[in-house]
Structure formats: structure tokens, C-alpha cells
Amino acid sequence: MGYESKILKLFKNGYLTTKDVTENNIPRTYLTKLIKENKIERVSRGVYIKKNVLVDEFMVLQSKSKYAIYSNATALYLHGLSNRIPIKYDITVKSGYKGSLQKEDNVTLFYTKRELLELGVIDYKLDSGNIIRVYDLDKTICDIIKNKKKVDAEIFNKAIREYFYSKKKNTLKLYEYAKKMNIYNKVRDIFEVLG
To answer: What contacts 172, CB < 8 A, 6 or more positions away?
Structure first.
């Protein structure tokens, strides 16, 4: 089997990264060859799609950094607590992050301490079949409370109300996250008003 065939078999849900190619000891020049043959397309640095596959912006943005985690209003949308399709994607990265996501016009970056970055992260399967990293529902609620001034008031109020009445909520986890994020009193005050 030739390198081109091997590359085409490495695609997952229509996507491939340069890392996938190098880990399989395939010279990168074959990626260029497949692009010239119009079999694949480069959608961003190190990310390729098969021809005739729709670009999944969630996947493309997340592939730009191993530290990128969807959060805030974008996570609310993914969890069904907002019906506003993201125009700008909210992504949390570790403090001190310097990378290509900073140059993206359609991204709002939030920064957090390294030790809190992985708190509440889950793998989320998109309709496309791609898996992205996003904060779970309870961590997302903590994030929007922490970043209340940066979140649209209508989205904030709807999300808090829907979370409060949701069967999916885990208040033990919510308060555990709030303590670690030093926002316990803010979270308690908001939910005491509703209770």
C-alpha cells in the first residue's frame, strides 16, 4: 500500500492532522501531493479534510491548541442551555497561553490557572461524529458566574434559570467547582435567590 492510500485511511470523521501522519512514519510531502491532486484540503495549520467534507469549525479551532477547551456561552449552546449559535467561539486556555487562537477573529479567549484548566472537562461528541473538549454543565455554570460581565445578560439569566430546574444539574459538583474557583459565595448567592 502506498503512502497516499495510508494517509487516506488515517482520516477520522473526514479529518486528519499532521501529527497523525508523522506518528505513522509517513513523509509529510505526501500531504502536499494529495492537496495538489485535489483529494484533500488544508483547513488550517496541521489540519486537513477530505474533499467534499464540510468544515467543522469546532474541530478546526480545537486542533490549534491542545489546551483549548470550549467554555462559557459556547459550552451553554453545546449543553442546550442557549439556542444562540455561536458567532464567536468562547475557548478557555491556560494563563500565559501564546498561540494561533489569539489571532482568530471568531474566538474569545478566557484564561485560567494551569491547575484549573482540566477541572470539569468532558469529551463531547458533535453531530459530525467529531469529539471536542468542553466543560461539563456544572463547570460551565461556574464559568458564566465568574465571567458574568462578559456574558450577554439574556443568555446568563436563561442559563441560570434552566440549570436550576434541570434534571442534569449536579449541585454537589457545582459547589465543589465553585470552591476551587474561589467563587463559592457568588454561586451560593445566585442560587439562594432562585431557591
So the answer is: none
Quick one: cell of 139? 463547570
- Please give the single-letter amino acid code of residue 8: L
Where residue 79 falls (left for φ over 0; alpha for ψ -120 to 50; beta otherwise) is: alpha
CA 157/CA 148 separation, integer angstroms: 10
Say how far apart CA 150 and CA 156 lie, in whole Å: 10
* Prediction pTM value: 0.86
In the predicted model, what is the mean pLDDT of residues 152-165? 94
Q: Is 141 exposed, middle or buried (0-12, 13-18, 19+ CB in 10 A)?
A: buried
The pLDDT tens digits for 40-52 are 999 888 889 888 8
- Is-contact 90 70, C-beta < 8 A? yes
- Please name which of 36, 41, 3, 44 lies closest in space to residue 21, comparing C-alpha atoms: 3
Q: Three-state DSSP class for 14?
A: coil
- Cell numbers found for residue 54: 464540510
Q: Do residues 119 and 42 both lie within one domain?
A: no
Query: What's the alpha-carbon Rg for the chain, to the nearest Å?
Result: 19
Contacts of 120 (CB under 8 A, 6+ apart): 135, 136, 138, 139, 140, 142, 173, 177
Q: Mark whether 23 and 71 lie in a shared domain.
A: no
32 shares a domain with 80:
no
What domain range includes position 32?
Answer: 3-55
Q: What angle do CA 33, 36, 37 make, to 5 degrees?
A: 85
